[in-house]
Amino acid sequence: MRTWPLMASAVALLISGTAAVLFACGTSPAISVVRIGGADKPDIRGDPVKFRRPAQESYVGIRGGFFVVRRLDDWHGVWSGNEQPLPSTLDTAQQMLVLAVADAPDTVHVSVTRVVETGDKIHVFVKETKKGDQCVTKIERTPFDAVFASRIDKPVQFWVETDKGESCGDPPAVTVQCRPQNEQTWSNKLEARAGDTFECELTADVRGKFVVVDRVLTLGEMPGGSTAKIAYTKAAMAGSFTVDVFGTYVIRGEATDDSGRRSSHIARIDVTPPKTKDVLIQLVWTNFDLRDEPDTFPRVRLHAVESASKTNPRECSSDNALTEICELRTYSAYAQMKLLQSDRHIPLYVKYVDELIEKGPLPCVHVYYDGKRTAETCDRRHRSPDETWQLGVIDMATGLLGPPLPQTTDAADAGVPDATPPPKKPGKK
Q1: 214 or 1, which is more confident?
Q2: Which helix (H) or strand (E) holds 362?
Q3: Backbone angles phi, psi at 238, to 5 degrees
Q4: Bridge-based pairing state of the strands 156-164 and 31-36
């Protein structure tokens, strides 16, 4: 009786069984990844391997890469932390789990398309889709694909083909324009005087395949001390505001489409002191919250007195703006006084109508000459109604603010002594 073939078959079966045990208990077969282009697809011929997709919820939190799970240690290697239990439907004695997980932030989709077995390998074909041009990815979890297949203990070669998604087109086109109140010409770059009021509006045009879902117009930047606020007239897309202190005001418009893409545009309004030999004085405020309304600030009056004569001084104030010596504009709690060019020394003071508390809004006075700030001072004291803050004496030839003159009576009641220096006596020859 010939027993050799039977013995040979038993040995082969024993070797095969030993190999299966080694694969089950030892190191898993190697995994390699090759990225290919559309023209570089390999012509792999072999036996198709059937696979199915289980429920995908169990795989949230896996790390990026390409994996084959045939044993518990393989499953441990899939996680960077917060490991989930091995799927209860996966029988690792009979099945293997093939995982393809996006490892780049611009990948929006991953799919296993084909699995082929050859004599020495398992070939897994994967298609990755990158986000299209001008698209914003809003992905709640990392893209991946997970499939079950019959367990085959051979090395695995992943062939990854990358494709680009459809373009989303350009984001919305945003324009912001402003114009002085009651004028017709719009622009995104303007010059103004303190106290001017402007109207601004935002327009947004769709250029891609998504609709605009949000538009908002805001004051992006303001000079320090400004209380400017937009009074909206058309939802948040149009409104008006008053420029109140010198500096640059940036009006920003932003539009967002339903894919989350944002576009913006700005308009600038520059309020600069003119280069002139007149002296410009601004009464502004500090120590307030941007939510405060300037109309609620304590009422004050800015005064300047030109002592043309001791008996009849000429005063410039919000109550008595004499065009012979000054021009005065008031807007809300702010005031701007222009003292016309002269060679005199003019005392400057502030009269309080309401009480000024130390922890509330505080008035400041800025002085400008020839386009430059020459003085700045703020009143940080408690003031009672009808009290006077003596700022000092302005030298009209330089715009500099000197110390106040000695006072024996209230300046508002008795006038201010002549601050113009007396002429010098001729020297002896």
Answers
A1: 214
A2: strand 362-369
A3: -155, 150
A4: parallel
Q: Smallest Cα–Cα separation from 152: which of 122, 124, 125?
A: 122
Q: Confidence band (pLDDT; 50, 70, 90) for 418?
A: very low
The topology (CATH level 3) of 279-414 is Lipoxygenase-1 (2.60.60)
User: 269 - beta bridge partners?
Assistant: 190, 249
Q: Is the Cβ–Cβ distance between 337 and 327 less than 8 Å?
A: yes
* 172 in Cβ contact with 263 (< 8 Å): yes
Look at phi and psi of residue 105 and say left if phi exceeds 0, alpha if psi is from -120 to 50, else beta: alpha
- Report the Cα 340 to chain-centroid distance in Å: 44
The answer to whether the 173-271 and 279-414 domains have the same CATH topology is: no
User: What CATH code would you report for 173-271?
Assistant: 2.60.40.10
Distance CA 335, CA 37 (A): 70
With a CB cutoff of 8 Å and minimum separation 6, the contacts of 252 are 176, 217, 218, 219, 220, 264, 265, 266
Is residue 68 within 8 Å of 156, Cβ to Cβ?
yes
Q: What is the mean pLDDT of residues 17-37?
A: 65
pLDDT number for residue 135 = 83
Question: Average pLDDT, whole number, for the chain?
Answer: 85
Whether the pLDDT of residue 419 is over 80: the answer is no
pLDDT tens string 310-320? 667 788 887 77
Say what the pLDDT of residue 166 is.
86
d(Cα 160, Cα 31) in Å, to the nearest integer? 13
122-155 CB burial, b ≥16 within 10 A, e <16: bbbbbbbbbbbebbeeeeeebbbbbbbbebbebe
The domain ranges of the chain are 28-37+47-164, 173-271, 279-414
State how far Cα 123 lies from the chain centre.
Answer: 47
The pLDDT of residue 181 is: 92
Element (H, E) at 213: strand 212-221
Sheet holding 31-36, edge to edge: 31-36, 156-164, 122-130, 107-117, 47-48
Q: So what's the pLDDT on residue 25?
A: 47
Output the six-digit token pair for 103. 């490892």
Would residue 392 be called left, alpha or beta, if left means φ above 0 and alpha means ψ between -120 and 50 degrees?
left
